[in-house]
Amino acid sequence: MVVKEKIRSKMKRTKMKRTKVKRTKVKRSKIKRTMKRSLKRRSSRKTKKTKINRKKKRTKRMKGGAQLPSEIKKEDYSETDLFARGNFSEIFRVDEKIIKKMKYDNDNYFDKKHFTDKFLKEVAIMESLNDCSPMISPTIYAYDMSNPEEYWILMEYLENKDITDTKLFSKNAFEALDALYERGYAHCDIKKGNFVVTSDNGFKFIDFGEATNTESNGRIFPFMGNDFEIPKFIKDMAHWVGNIWIFSIIKDLEILKFCDILCLMHEIFRIDPDIRSDFEKNLVDCESFEDFVSLYNNFRKRIGLIDYNGFEGFSFTIPNLCVDQLLFKNIINGAAFPGAKEVLLPALIENLFTEEQQGAIKSNQHILLTTEYIDYLRDKNGIVITVMDVPFEVNIF
When you count CB atoms within 10 A of the terminal residue's CB, does the N or C end of the chain come out lower? Predict the structure, then answer.
């Protein structure tokens, strides 16, 4: 009996041990499962954080002036890779991307700050147009400001196609201009070379170097690099417009829009002889701004668009004439354009200074760069003429 009890107690202890071991195993497996789950959660959180960080980095690359992507190396480019050259930039093509390089020089900029402000303004405008639908500009991917002497923008390459339907192209062009105005910008430099024809007679702007809004007072020519006869009512208001290339301070977005519309209409005249014969002469003969608005809406109907109401309640006035020190310096040094010293400089002197001052300037043209004449302000024929030695303020928006 004693032996039997001993055996039973031993078996009981063994059973208890087994149960304990089993329970321990279960506990361990539970702990393992819990650990695995927590590790999974941690790794998924980490992955999510990494994805978020990557997104942030990508956004920063767009808006923070980060380096160009590693596969695009600036050292790889030589003069043979040059795709196009503009007034202030050089364009390189890499597969389906374009690199726009802007180089600092004393002829085009007052100082490094002016160069940087102008560059950042163009980047800010292009970034703000990235989500337009349909797109009216190339997609901008990144920009680089690591070298203070030259800045780069990496953007989408757009191939220039042939126009097969002039009416459809004209409609798309003015729809793109309307979309730009809805974003609060004016282009200020519409001409052949600053836009492309995309597939199906589409239209996209490709250069925003002079684009602006009312928050930034840009230095612009009355109608930039375009050569056409201006409407009569403008000539009646200011004799100097169109006769001499001279800067104007334009604070009204509506005047900038008017300049854009006028330039784009003349681009359409260039490609469509029928529209040109119906509208060009009437445009030149406009005797008031109201006449222009009426003619512009007739033009829009012709190309299949509704009336434009952006000029409602606006009273057109000619902006102040303005010349800055940079322009004088470039003309005197012969850097502005061929013949500027012989043709443009005498016209500027005649318009800006009294006869006594003109005599002093003719004997020493560099007197134009002295403080006495730079800060000169006077009124001639009701037009305020200002000579400035600093660039206009550019606000990055």
Answer: N
Single-letter amino acid, residue 176: A
DSSP character at residue 340 = I
pLDDT of residue 314: 87
Distance of CA 304 to the CA centre of its chain: 28
Tokens 């003719």 correspond to what residue? 362
Give CATH for domain 166-302. 1.10.510
β-pairing, 248-249 vs 89-94, is: unpaired
CA distance 104 to 90: 12
pTM: 0.71
Q: Which residues of the chain have pLDDT under 70?
A: 1-80, 214-226, 238-251, 319-327, 335-340, 343-344, 351-352, 370-397
Residue 365: DSSP 8-state: G
- Asked whether the CA dihedral 231, 232, 233, 237 is positive or negative, the reply is positive
* pLDDT at residue 8, as a whole number: 61
pLDDT in tens, 175-186: 999 999 999 898
Give the residue from 179, 205, 202 showing the smallest Cα distance to 194: 205
Separation of alpha carbons 134 and 390, rounded Å: 39
Determine whether 139 is exposed, middle or buried from the number of CB atoms within 10 Å of its CB (0-12, 13-18, 19+): middle
Contact 118, 105 (CB under 8 A): no
- In CATH terms, the superfamily for domain 74-156 is Phosphorylase Kinase; domain 1 (3.30.200.20)
| Domain range summary for the chain, segments of one domain joined by + | 74-156, 166-302, 321-388
